[in-house]
Specification:
Length: 110
Amino acid sequence: MSTMTYQGYAAKIEYSDEDKSLVGRIAGIQDVIGFHADNVTDLRLAFEDAVEDYLSYCSEQGREPQRPASGKISLRIQPEVHAAINVAAEVSGKSVNQWISDTLIQAVHG
């Protein structure tokens, strides 16, 4: 899976048969920011313009733009899984955070 990204934002792209165009929106934030175009080159430009417009709008409004992620994840898992992660991290010579990060990167990027 390829992802269109710009300034830390990622785009979710779909094809609209009704409009016969590519339609995108910025993924991972609650603010709704959409864009569209008839071809990939124009879609890329529309995406970049949408991000720039969003950042400008937030600046004009005096508010921080939403970001897709903070880099922190809090989750609950079964104690047995947590113990297995501790062992796997120690065996690999990594901290638990580094082991989990590396494992997630591998899962996302294959």
